[in-house]
Design goal:
- This is Ergothioneine biosynthesis glutamate--cysteine ligase EgtA.
- It contains one helix and no strands.
- It is an all-alpha fold and about 50 residues long.
- The protein has a domain of about 30 residues.
- The longest helix is centred in the middle third of the chain and has 11 residues.
Length: about 50
């Protein structure tokens, strides 16, 4: 497992294979996620006429 200090933060990933290797090092260290979160947003609109 890679720790934060092991990673080169200034590296620019120019190739797809390099990006895949980088993601394999930093993501899913304990396995892929088993639950996916969902965020819901509600907007409320007042349909009554505006009174001035």
């Amino acid at each position: 497992m890679a720790t934060s200090s092991d990673l080169d933060r200034s590296a620019i990933l120019r190739e797809s294979a390099a990006a895949v290797r980088h993601l394999a090092r930093i993501c899913f260290k304990t396995g892929p996620p088993t639950h996916t979160g969902v965020e819901l947003e509600w907007t409320v609109h007042d349909l009554s006429p505006i009174q001035i």
